[in-house]
Write a structure and sequence with these properties.
With about 240 residues, the protein is mainly α. The protein has helices spanning about 15-35, 40-60, 65-90, 100-125, 130-150, 165-185, 190-195, 200-215, 220-240. The chain has a domain at about 35-190. The chain has nine helices and no strands. α4 packs antiparallel against α5. The N and C termini lie far apart (about 175 Å). The model is unreliable at about 200-205 (pLDDT under 50).
């Protein structure tokens, strides 16, 4: 009669090959999350952020001067900002978002670029365009905050109407009325006429003035020619010689 102790011990179940591959992928993912992004990539990503925002800010403020030109600059700035978003949020990120989240990040980044452009451009050129800057600054504050909350993975969209959102709205309202008061003091007409990126318009009146004054020296020889025959005729008259 065989004893119970003579039975072979059950062997441990061998892990499935698929489970081993999944564990290896998880290990590589954890290793990639611990490893920081390369310095060159992070530098390029941040430079593209600020270059795109700078192009948009200049285009938003100067758009009435040359709509066709500054529309192209704004489009280039948006593309640069979106490239920066792809680099920072997808290529260099440890956890890449899913497709719905990726679309939301891209749209929010587009709104964020315009919000930052309105805010920085309105402040930079407020003295040149007082009335326009008084609208761009509060609008940029509001738009940039909403876009940032939508873009931030650690924040819920409900934060837009929370205490921080109300504080941002109050700040934008106060800045609007305050800047409108300052703009009325500066005067919109004097502010816009003082902004210029070239001296061609100022040099043109000088050329016309020079053209009008140039015929003045030629009056001397003309007077000499007209007076010379009269002197000769008077000399003939005194001599008594006449024809």
């Amino acid at each position: 009669m065989p004893l119970v102790t003579d039975r072979p011990a059950p062997s441990a179940p061998h892990p499935h090959a698929g489970g081993g591959r999944a564990a290896a992928r998880r290990a590589r993912s954890r290793h990639r999350a611990r490893r920081p992004a390369p310095l060159a990539g992070r530098y390029i990503g941040y430079v593209l952020y600020f270059v795109g925002a700078g192009l948009i800010s200049g285009a938003v403020v100067h758009h009435p001067l040359d709509p066709a030109r500054y529309t192209k600059i704004a489009v280039i700035g948006v593309l640069v900002f979106l490239v920066a978003t792809v680099v920072n949020e997808f290529l260099l990120a440890a956890d890449r978002p899913a497709l719905p989240r990726a679309i939301l990040v891209i749209v929010a980044s587009l709104l964020l670029s315009f919000g930052i452009g309105m805010l920085s451009g309105g402040l930079q050129h407020f003295e040149d365009f007082p009335a326009r800057g008084a609208v761009l600054v509060p609008l940029g504050i509001t738009l940039s905050f909403i876009a940032f909350v939508l873009k931030d993975a650690q924040s819920s969209w409900r934060r837009i109407v929370g205490p921080v959102g109300l504080a941002v709205l109050l700040t934008a309202t106060v800045s609007f009325f305050g800047l409108r008061t300052v703009a009325d003091g500066l005067g919109e007409a004097s502010g816009e006429s003082g902004h210029s990126h070239g001296g061609g318009a100022e040099e043109e009146p000088d050329e016309h003035e020079a053209g009008e004054e140039s015929p003045a020296p030629s009056s001397g020889p003309t007077e000499a020619e007209t007076t010379a025959p009269s002197d000769v005729e008077s000399g003939h008259a005194e001599d008594g010689h006449s024809h």
